[in-house]
Amino acid sequence: MKILTGAQIRELDQYTIDHEPIASIDLMERASRAITQAITTRFESTTPIVVFAGPGNNGGDALAVSRMLSEKGYIVDAYLFNIHGTLSDNCEKNRDRLKSEGLVHSYTEVTSNFDPPKLTQQILVIDGLFGSGLNKPLTGGFASLVKYINQSTARVVSIDMPSGLMAEDNSANNSAAIIRADLTLTLQFKKLSMYYADCQQYLGKVQVLDIRLSKEYVKSIPSPFSTVDAEYIRKNMLTRDDFAHKGTMGNALLIAGTEGMAGAAVLASKACLRSGVGKLTALTPRCNTTVMQISVPEAVLAIDQENYYSEAVAADEFDAVGIGPGLGKQEGSALALMSQLQQTQCPVVLDADALNMLGSHGTWISQLPDNMILTPHPRELDRLASTTCHSDSERLAVARDMAESLRAYIVLKGHYTALCLPDGNVVFNTTGNSGMATAGSGDVLTGIITGLLARGYSRKNACLTGIYLHGLAGDIAAARVGKECMMASDIIAALPEAFKAMY
Fold first, then answer.
1. Is residue 204 within 8 Å of residue 184, measured between CB atoms?
2. Helices 57-71 and 89-101 sit at what angle, rounded to 10 degrees?
């Protein structure tokens, strides 16, 4: 599914108005009915409601919702902020209708001074001040109102976007002047900023409301941002021929583990094997031999004579190579890594300590061969880029630039893991949960992607299928054991069920 900018959504609104056709005020009425339905489903009619409406169309939605809730027996106090005496056409129409019907408990139009109502924990605040069209931080009275709402004990539902939060880039925003909602009822699509970890504190729970904007126009709108879904994964899953044997199902190499870090090699190896690869060779130091042979008897072991990865190995017979889990950061390993990359022709996944070694040798990253797959978490990306990003939008921009300049596939890990492609496009994953924030989860992902590559998936589809199934297995594991109790091995145990769900 595409992720559209605020400007594109406004274009989509207008196209729907012109081609459905439907009057603009009627489209607002449709959206307001969906918002009202979502509110009445969650909150009893005895809940006292305070509505804050801004002067634009977000305020128009809020006023229409005030009217509809009043019709359903809710006690609603509505405040319209008309500071500059300029309301949008639809906001003005909804104000006049609200006043003429006279059902709302109280209506106040604020033009100068504002005496705010007392907001207790029994009250539900509906935030309709500003929506996805905002392009600069809130200041002055609106910033003060936001702070007042945030300091109260009232529950808050935001219409489309928490007021003050911008739809795309919030790196220069004022965090103190953004509504902290308990629930965000966003219209038609999640906005780009809703996929950033540092914006989650403002959103609360997010519910997407379908207001039937033109699907035809959505198909025609170009966007570099999208999400991957089950339909895409199912369509691109490879099938296993009835006459397949291990020699036709891919041959993978994992270079993982150092002294004291055998667990990372075990987890990556098990995940790789669970991903359908025909044969796996694990290159690990001699000190890990016993652990590996007992834990993963299906893997063929290649033994490094040192207690760390010290020498590149021939990779001609392999269909994919994964490097990094638990590898350590010895200088000898760093030299072996670069030698390995220079002589390896098949697809390569770089993770964990492989990324850390690249980050500690500033110029090496520019020497990477094309089409590498890198799987950094946020801090690893910062080290790779030799920078400190101050927001998730800034970090994603860095990852996109790096993917384009290196002609690489960068899997930026997080709740909504983002695959940055060499062509500048970005695809967000939608599976997974916070229980996966545990040691070894990334090693599992490396194993999955390496296994899928060896199986014959393209780099793009190995990454997308890998992150989707990794997250889906995490969701299955969370349902089994709970988020608090999850371990990386629980994700591996759930992989068979995740794979089965996609066939």
1. yes
2. 20
Order of strands across the sheet with 320-323?
A: 225-227, 426-428, 418-420, 409-412, 373-374, 348-350, 320-323, 251-255, 279-285, 300-304
Distance in angstroms (rounded) separating the CA atoms of residues 237 and 36:
40
Query: What does the alpha-carbon distance between residue 423 and residue 404 come to, in Å, rounded to a whole number?
Result: 6
Query: Pick from 375, 379, 412: which is nearest to 397 by CA?
Result: 412
C-alpha to C-alpha distance for 442 and 432, rounded to whole angstroms: 12
- Per-residue pLDDT reduced to its tens digit, 68-94: 999 999 999 999 999 999 999 999 999
Concatenated DSSP letters for 43-111? S-TTS-EEEEE-SSHHHHHHHHHHHHHHHTT--EEEEEE-TTS---HHHHHHHHHHHHH--SSEEEEES
Which tokens hold the place of 305?
Answer: 């004579």
Mapped onto helix, strand or coil, the DSSP state of residue 185 is: strand
Strands of 326-428, DSSP E: 348-350, 373-374, 409-412, 418-420, 426-428
Span 207-252, pLDDT tens digits: 999 999 999 999 999 999 999 999 999 999 999 999 999 999 999 9
pLDDT tens-place string over residues 463-472: 999 999 999 9
Q: Could you tell me how many residues make up the chain?
A: 503
- Residue 309 and residue 339: Cα distance in Å, rounded? 12
Phi and psi based region of residue 456 (left: phi greater than 0; alpha: psi -120 to 50; beta: remaining): left
How many angstroms separate the CA atoms of 158 and 120, rounded?
17
pTM for the model stands at: 0.96
